[in-house]
Amino acid sequence: MLLREAGDSVPAVSHDWWAYLLVSGCGGKIFYDSNPSILYRQHDSNCVGANTGVRESGKRVKQLLHGRYRQWMDQNIVALQAISHRFTPENRNTLELFSRARKGNLFKRLAGMRRAGVYRQTYLGNIGLLAAIFIRRV
Question: What is the rounded distance in angstroms from the CA atom of residue 80 to the CA atom of residue 87?
């Protein structure tokens, strides 16, 4: 129902992340299963793929440095703002804080991301996020 309401014209980067962001933004319960249960065909022309291994991590860093990650964030924000009227008040506020924090000077970016509660799932992921905030790639 939410995906239908959001519409087909939403500039979502990845269908699975879009569904995750939409459901969690609207207050739905998300259950993470660390055990992969869906076979996903990996190939060189995938926009996003498994991030396992040094080579794949290197590709992600390169994409980050070239602004691809920031571009994805831009697209996700536009898509989320289009349906944010369905979000919980707390998640609507988080989206607004995150969106504003990306535009400030270094101090405002760091403080704003902290206020928004933005984090990654791993220690290295959080180091990468911090580096991306420093170089304006979030």
Answer: 9
DSSP structural state of residue 14: -
Digit-coded pLDDT (tens) for 3-26: 677 766 677 778 788 888 999 999
Angle between helices 106-116 and 123-134 (to 10 degrees): 140
Nearest-CA neighbor of 138 among 89, 53, 69?
Answer: 69
- The reply to whether 5 falls in a domain is no
In angstroms, the CA 12 to CA 117 distance is 22
Taking residues 124-132, report their average pLDDT: 93
Q: Rg of the Cα trace of the chain? A: 16
Within a domain: 1: no
- Domain range holding 71? 13-32+53-134
Stated pTM of the model: 0.81
